[in-house]
Design a protein that fits this description.
Layout lengths: L1 E9 L7 E8 L5 E11 L1 H7 L9 E2 L4 E8 L11 E4 L9 H4 L27 E2 L9 E5 L3 E3 L6 H21 L7 E5 L3 H12 L4 E6 L2 H9 L4 E4 L4 H11 L6 E4 L4 H9 L6 E4 L13 H6 L3 E4 L7 H13 L9 E5 L4 H9 L5 E5 L3
Parallel strand pairs: 4-7, 10-11, 10-13, 11-12, 13-14, 14-15, 16-17
Antiparallel strand pairs: 1-2, 1-4, 3-5, 3-8, 3-17, 5-6, 6-9
Helix pairs in contact: 3-4, 3-9
Length: about 375
């Protein structure tokens, strides 16, 4: 038995995404069907759409979503039908070394990497699901472990962002780097992930938070999220580094790069003070390399940390982030500055290429 749903389908990298009516299978053992309420449009989706990240096709797009559980397969006790869930794009296998150690963000055998359900089946007939969840569809069938119940009352668009940009940015500060209270922090790149880093720095009680972007309006927006200082970057990296070091007594303790460009990665490393840490959060296109001077890096006991998914343990962290949002301590809903329909996805990608918007979110009819 199948259900017919409308979905954003990428038939081949570099081609326009098409809206297709696809057959969605019924949930089987260990699976649930989720009616989508919202799906964020993430830069990772654009990397796949434009062919900068190789992914198999045809594939239903989207990996940042929230919805309501409509049906569960045999043996599923959580989530329950009717619960609102945020979807995790990394589904732990549960048996690899990382999962056994509790480091689920480092799972080496996740079905997410194959864009298929746990047994290799596809949720959509004739198409894969991006990261095994395919959130840019009216509904999707996903492993139960990917559907994390969250407290009631959160805007579905904000709930969707917990599944990627919020977990990535907030977790980079509070989990990957474990920024101690009183530290000085800089964030380079003020999109959804970068502003989530700013929110994470506020949660961590950083004493100074410098928000850096080339767009003055984004810098000012970051102040409303808790940044104590703003810096509009120009074309001269040396001038940006000098200005940052001047605001932080020689450089911040932690610098978070949230764009994924080699130029800003190199800037982050070059701006580190003695003992400072650069946390690389943004993802580049495949094959790109950054460089730094090795002697001062080693001599100054500097560090580079890579932060995948903010070291998220979705079953624990998603409800916690949702609770913080409901308490007003994580203003996630303010990241959403454009709501659109599924048919407007290509326009959203074009806006993203122009550097517009903080986070665009596809909303589905309730």
């Amino acid at each position: 038995m199948t259900t017919r749903v409308r979905a954003a389908l990428l038939e081949a990298a570099g081609k326009r995404v098409v809206m297709a009516d696809l057959d969605l299978i019924e949930p089987r053992a260990g699976e649930v069907r989720v009616r989508m309420l919202a799906s964020g449009v993430c830069h990772s989706d654009l990397h796949v759409r434009d062919g900068e990240w190789e992914r198999p096709t045809p594939i239903v797009m989207g990996h940042e979503g929230a919805g309501v559980v409509e049906a569960v397969g045999p043996g599923v006790t959580s989530p329950r039908v009717g619960q609102v869930v945020a979807l995790s794009w990394l589904i732990p296998c549960g048996v690899c070394r990382a999962c056994v150690l509790g480091h689920v963000w480092a799972c080496s055998d996740s079905p997410s990497f194959r864009h298929r359900l746990l047994d290799g089946e596809t949720a959509f007939r004739g198409a894969l699901s991006y990261c095994a969840i395919g959130t840019m569809a009216e509904a999707s069938v996903v492993p139960a472990a990917a559907a994390i119940p969250i407290p009631d009352g959160l805007d579905p668009a904000a709930a969707a962002l917990i599944g990627c940009c919020v977990a990535t940015g907030v977790g980079a500060v509070t989990k990957t780097a474990a920024v101690p209270p009183g530290s000085t922090v800089a964030v380079i790149g003020l999109g959804g992930v970068g502003l989530s880093c700013v929110m994470g720095a506020v949660l961590a009680s950083a004493s100074r938070i410098v928000a850096i972007d080339r767009v003055a309006a984004k810098v000012e927006l970051a102040r409303t999220f808790g940044a104590t200082d703003g810096l509009v970057a120009g074309d001269d990296p040396a001038a940006t580094i000098q200005a940052l070091q001047g605001r932080t007594h020689g450089g911040p303790d932690f610098i978070f790069e949230a764009i994924g460009r080699t130029s800003t990665i190199e800037l982050a490393i070059a701006a580190l003070p003695l003992g400072g840490t650069a946390v690389l959060v943004g993802l580049t296109a495949f094959g790109e390399r950054a460089a730094f001077d090795v002697y001062p890096f080693v001599d100054g006991s500097r560090r580079i940390l890579g932060s995948n998914y903010g070291f998220a343990d979705p079953a624990i962290d998603f409800p916690r982030y949702a609770k913080l949002a409901l308490e007003g301590r994580l203003p996630i809903e303010r990241l959403v500055d454009r709501r659109l329909g599924l048919d407007e996805l290509e326009d959203a990608f074009a806006a993203m290429r122009r550097g517009e918007h903080i986070r665009q979110v596809i909303v589905f009819d309730a």
